[in-house]
Specification:
It contains six helices and five strands; from the N terminus they run βαβαβαβαβαα. It is an alpha/beta fold and about 150 residues long. The chain has a single domain (about 1-150), classed as Sugar-phosphate isomerase, RpiB/LacA/LacB (Ribose 5-phosphate Isomerase B, Chain: A, 3-Layer(aba) Sandwich), CATH 3.40.1400.10.
């Protein structure tokens, strides 16, 4: 599976950790930046690249072999940017029960995980990513019906 990855300055340090973790776990990773720390960068510049890639790949397929992970300070603005693109269903995680992100996959077939880097430790972040990637869409009719209304 291919994972598209992007972060702004707030998620920059975690992005390299995630990239290494995913590669070691057998995922193919495409990194859309940022590639250096710039405290005045603008997260939409990087996040939109992941959202565009997911939008295209998911256009005619309900679960192609790719997902996205985006990082920012809270993950909120990043998800807002991503969710403006057709076929994108970005969910935010910045702490709390992992059931939150499990349900985003099981019920909503979320295809982008937006992480609030300022609220998680490295261990929490990697645990959340692993949980999200391991969770599958239920495929239940009620969820398919609801997603079609997006």
């Amino acid at each position: 599976m291919k994972i598209y990855l992007a972060a702004d300055h707030a998620g920059f340090e975690f992005k390299s950790i995630i990239k290494k973790h995913l590669s070691e776990s057998g995922f193919e990773v495409e990194d859309f930046g940022t590639n250096y720390f710039e405290p005045n960068d603008d997260y939409p510049d990087f996040i939109k690249l992941v959202a565009e890639a997911i939008s295209k790949k998911w256009e005619n397929n309900d679960s192609p072999d790719c997902l996205g992970i985006i990082l920012g300070g809270s993950g909120q603005g990043e998800a807002m940017v991503a969710n403006r693109f057709k076929n994108v269903r970005a969910t935010v995680y910045y702490s709390g029960p992992l059931e939150i992100i499990k349900l985003s996959k099981e019920h909503n077939n979320a295809n982008i995980l937006s992480i609030g880097a300022r609220f998680l430790s490295e261990k929490e972040m990697l645990g959340a990513i692993d949980t999200w990637l391991a969770t599958k869409f239920s495929g239940e009719d009620r969820h398919i019906r609801r997603i079609a209304k997006f």
